[in-house]
Amino acid sequence: MLGLEMFLGIIGALTLLVGGVGVANIMYAVVKEKTREIGIQMAMGRPQVLDHRAVHPPGARVHPGRRALGWTIAVVIVTLLSLVPVEGNQALEFLGKPTLSWHIAVATASVLGFIGLVAGYFPARRAASIDPAETLRYE
Question: Which of 58, 83, 91, 104 lies 20 to 30 A from 5 at CA?
Answer without folding.
Answer: 83
